[in-house]
Design a protein that fits this description.
The complex is a heterotrimer of chains A (358), B (279) and C (300). Chain A has 358 residues and is an alpha+beta fold. Helix content of chain A is 25%, strand content 33%. In chain A, the strands form 4 sheets. In chain A, strands 6-7-8-3-9-10 form a 6-stranded mixed β-sheet, sandwiched between helices. In chain A, strands 13-12-11-14-20 form a 5-stranded antiparallel β-sheet, with no helix packed on it. The relative contact order of chain A is 0.11. In chain B, helix 1 crosses helix 13, helix 9 runs antiparallel to helix 10 and helix 10 packs antiparallel against helix 13. Classes of the chains: A alpha+beta (358), B mainly alpha (279), C mainly alpha (300).
Chain lengths: 358, 279, 300
């Protein structure tokens, strides 16, 4: 089932959570809504679910498979919702929790006891909690609770799965495991899913498409690769992964940073403008000598070889910190040590010209 | 686009529950209270003032206020002691004693009234020993104070217990490691931390004592100008069909109650928000 | 490193070492003794006195007082009053707590203060306001009289006054409990297709059952034991408008002490039972509250 929201706004008192947001999720996709706290991502998810109501506006619509469900109450939207803090019914067993959605159906639509039992056991098997049916939520770990919550949401055969920071309350290792498991599950059942998260690593790993949000607006909407390697603006670039930011100037088709010049055809004018030059740690390399290549002079402050790449911290002449990720072999070649004076040069860079002048 | 007004609440039941709540409160509380105020207002200021400043009435204010204040203070001191021992120490029978603290809440006031009288009357269980010493308890302000101590006891203890239980031992340990004696740690670290709860309990005990009727009317003796509490005065006036009198005095009492209620709410607010400033 | 002389090691007896956050043993013993004496004097002695005085003339007299027709009528009236007031206040408490805890609206704190009002008002005034409203000289007095409806000096008045002084109990227990429990579970139930009623019965009610029970116990104890407010509205008509506390007062004022204390001991037994049940339920309630504010650990 596809989801489309058009012109959704939401204010809470003086605070605007969403500014005229429009978005489309295609059938079978796993889309991540990624952003910092206050970006509006959870609000948007809840509006899709029907747990919040958008501000009244003739232009705003919520469409499931192209039919308008804006007026439909949450119970009739066939959404499966997974809450950040699980929201398991604490006085019911795991079995009763999962069976809940089936048991509250009106008599005509309610499956028989045997059918319910079978379905619950199927789901327990799916989430790998086969023998836990008789336990209570308080007897489960965080990861187990979240899996029960997922099973409970899936029990009513929803058309779309909405997950609100499902792994936010869990330890790092558990998070990783559940992340992989969720992706595998999605590949198996192809249920349209929308995942809210503030963890960019999670979004990049799990999602088919990422929607980056900030302060109630969508900053960029694209595949993980697209969003990471071709960020639309500084916010997106800074939010997804570490980045070095340098202050430079643009003029006549070039971005100038110290003695370095980078091609920037977007700005041909004579008039110099301020620009920010962004480089990711893995897009920088280090040389021991100038060799005629334009570069930045810096001193090595710290070398951390414990990882899949070596992380080098340097300080430039003007005091700016520079972070470079080097392949371990390259580190070996250079034999860097604390205090070495070296030269940093970019293999790739992105230039953003702020579109207002102070 | 639908013309139906969009519901703003997703969780159902807001309208009916709020409506019923307001209706109930309106009929049970607001309507009768407004009858009181309007009747009072209908007296006109000069008559109202005359009634509430009669010597007999003023004597009852002094008695009620004074006895309630003393009782609340005693409850504050001993209540703190009791709460401290119940939270911090272990001793045999502690659970029973802890449950017993709520007795004044659970026991009907008439029962405590006659029981206290039986104890402190000149030939009573304790009174018989005090009589030869010249100490009269029943039918004196002292008896009234004792009855008020009884009814106010749980307020201080129950308000302090959670506050003491929430104290972070680290603060006391820090004080000790800096060389403070246990006494100093208590007065400078612990007491300030539980002060809001102590004041709240005190105010609640005081408020309860001001309005108390059943526990007091038996032991007081009810002599006008001497051992007549204000709430009894209201009943007396009612029995004499002096509605204006009863109404006027009741209004004064009610005003005092409201002021206290507000104070208590502010104290609880202060206590609740204190934690936000802690490092 | 310079050669330092180690300080002499003093042997410490663990039994006498006192924690930094403990008082000296002597102080502890003093505090406990004073506390126990204080409580003994103010709580235990009155309890003993009720039973002692009631049984002064032996079990026979005790039993006769308790089964006296007027006493039985008083018991019946008390039970009827509580039987009406407690369920009504229960419904109110649940409704008010649902509105306050699950929704946001302006004036919430005013509403909560209003609910606390009876605690600040003297019982005598609680009765007086109904006399002023429904009594002969009251607002609605003439209207009621012309329709032959008797409220003051009759059972309806007693029930009303009892409702006034006891309605906060259930609400006051449920509001903080439901606020602590939040709304996530209810929202989850809605997403799974449950209706409002189903959500309430299957999800909310099991979560608040200990709070409800606790509130009902307190409400009932107060409803059965209320004296001041009921005294003002009842008219003290023996056999008709006397609840058990009022009957005690009448017996006492007639100098029929043994009978007064015998009947009073019934109320005392009720109070003790209330305390016991209350302690048990309170324990469960604390557990429930703790569970609501704890977040689980993050193992797989």
């Amino acid at each position: 089932m596809s989801i489309e929201v058009k012109h959704i706004s939401k204010t809470f008192g003086n605070f605007t959570a969403l500014h005229d947001v429009s978005l489309r999720v295609n059938d079978g996709e796993l889309v991540a809504l990624l952003g910092p706290s206050g970006s509006g991502k959870t609000t948007l998810l809840r509006i899709i679910a029907g747990l919040e109501v958008a501000d009244p506006n003739p232009a705003s619509e919520i469409l499931f498979d192209d039919s308008n469900v804006t007026e439909r109450p949450v119970g009739q939207r066939r959404v499966g919702f997974v809450f950040q803090h699980y929201a398991l019914f604490r006085h019911m067993t795991v079995f009763e929790n999962i069976a809940f959605g089936l048991r509250v159906r009106p008599r005509a639509l309610r499956p028989s006891k045997a059918e319910i039992r079978d379905r619950v056991h199927q789901l327990l098997k799916l989430v790998q909690l086969e023998n836990f049916g008789g336990r209570y939520p308080s007897q489960l770990s965080g990861g187990q609770r979240q899996r029960v919550a997922l099973a409970r949401a899936l029990a009513v055969e929803p058309k779309v799965l909405l997950l609100d920071e499902p792994f936010g309350a869990l330890d790092a290792k558990v998070r990783q495991g559940l992340r992989d498991w969720l992706r595998k599950l999605h590949d198996e059942i192809h249920l349209t899913s929308v995942l809210v998260t503030h963890d960019q690593e999670e979004a990049l790993e799990v999602a088919d498409r990422i929607v980056v949000m900030n302060q109630g607006r969508i900053e960029q909407d694209g595949t993980p690769e697209h969003v990471f390697h071709q960020p639309a603006n500084p916010f997106v670039m800074e939010f997804l992964g570490q980045v070095n930011v340098f202050q430079g100037r643009v003029r006549r088709g070039q971005a100038l940073l110290g003695e370095m010049a980078i091609e920037y055809p977007n700005y041909e004018a004579d008039q110099e403008r301020e620009a920010m030059v962004y480089m990711r740690p893995h897009e920088l390399d280090i040389k021991r000598s100038r060799n005629g290549v334009a570069s930045l002079a810096a001193r090595v402050v710290r070398v951390n070889p414990a990882g899949s790449v070596a992380k080098v911290n340097l300080r430039a002449g003007d005091g700016q910190n520079i972070y470079v990720d080097l392949p371990l072999e390259r580190l070996q070649e250079l034999q860097l040590a604390h205090g070495d004076e070296v030269y940093v040069y970019p293999k790739n860079a992105r230039v953003f010209v702020p579109d207002y002048v102070i | 686009m639908s013309l139906v007004a969009r519901k703003r609440n997703v969780l159902p039941g807001f309208g009916p529950t709020l409506g019923f709540t307001l209706f109930y409160l309106g009929v049970i509380v607001l309507l009768p209270l407004s009858a009181l105020f309007l009747k009072s207002a209908g007296l006109g200021w000069s008559q109202f003032w005359k009634i509430v400043t009669e010597p007999r009435v003023v004597a009852s204010y002094k008695l009620t206020f004074g006895a309630s204040l003393i009782a609340a203070l005693i409850n504050a001191v001993f209540g703190l002691m009791v709460a401290w021992t119940l939270v911090r120490y272990r001793f045999p029978g502690k659970k029973v004693i802890d449950a017993l603290v709520d007795l004044p809440f659970a026991l009907p006031t008439a029962v405590s009234g006659i029981a206290l009288t039986a104890i402190y009357a000149p030939n009573g269980w304790i009174g018989q020993y005090l009589e030869p010493l010249g100490i009269k308890v029943a039918f004196t302000p002292l008896g009234i104070t004792i009855a008020l101590i009884f009814v106010g006891l749980p307020f201080v203890v129950r308000t302090l217990q959670p506050a003491i239980a929430e104290l972070e031992k680290e603060h006391e340990e820090a004080a000790a490691s800096l060389g403070a004696t246990r006494f100093h740690a208590f007065t400078r670290v612990i007491l300030p931390a539980i002060l809001p709860a102590l004041l709240t309990g005190f105010a609640m005990a005081f408020a309860r004592a001001l309005g108390e009727y059943g526990s007091v009317v038996f032991i007081a003796g009810n002599m006008p100008m001497k051992t007549e509490i204000t709430s009894l005065l209201i009943v007396t006036k009612l029995e004499q069909y002096d509605y204006p009198g009863a109404t006027a005095i009741a209004t004064v009492m009610l005003m005092a109650s409201f002021v206290l209620l507000l104070t208590i709410n502010m104290l609880q607010y202060w206590a609740g928000h204190r934690h936000q400033g802690v490092a | 490193m310079s050669a330092a002389v180690a300080p002499p090691i003093t042997r410490v007896n663990p039994a006498t070492v006192r924690a930094a956050t403990d008082e000296p043993l002597g102080v502890k013993i003093l505090l406990v003794t004073v506390s126990v004496l204080f409580l003994g004097l103010f709580l235990v002695v009155p309890l003993a006195a009720v039973f002692g005085e009631g049984l002064r003339k032996g079990l026979g007299a005790y039993w006769a007082s308790v089964t006296d027709p007027a006493a039985l009528a008083a018991i019946k009236l008390t039970l009827i009053t509580a039987g009406i007031a407690v369920p009504l206040n229960l419904v109110f408490g649940v409704a008010a707590a649902w509105a306050i805890a699950k929704f946001n609206f302006r004036g919430k704190s005013v509403l909560i203060t209003l609910i606390d009002l009876p605690f600040a008002v003297s019982p005598v005034i609680s009765g007086l306001i109904y006399v002023l409203l429904f009594g002969m000289q009251g607002w609605l007095g003439p209207w009621l009289q012309s329709h032959g409806i008797q409220i003051i000096f009759a059972v309806p008045g007693i029930v009303l006054a009892t409702i006034f002084v006891t309605f906060p109990f259930v609400a006051r227990e449920l509001i903080p409990l439901m606020q602590a429990q939040g709304t996530d579970e209810e929202y989850a139930a809605l997403t799974l297709g449950a209706s409002g009623w189903q959500t309430f019965w299957r999800v909310t009610l099991p979560n608040i059952k200990w709070g409800v029970l606790y509130g009902v116990i307190l409400c009932n104890a107060r409803a059965m034991g209320e004296f001041g407010a009921v005294s003002v509205v009842s008219g003290h008509i023996r056999g008709k408008t006397n609840t058990v506390p009022l009957h005690v007062e009448i017996l006492y004022n007639e100098y029929n002490f043994v009978a007064a204390f015998a009947v009073a001991s019934l109320l005392t037994l009720l109070a003790l039972v209330t305390l016991v049940v209350k302690t048990i339920v309170e324990h469960r309630l604390q557990l429930e509250l703790k569970e609501s504010t704890q977040t689980p650990s993050g193992e797989a």
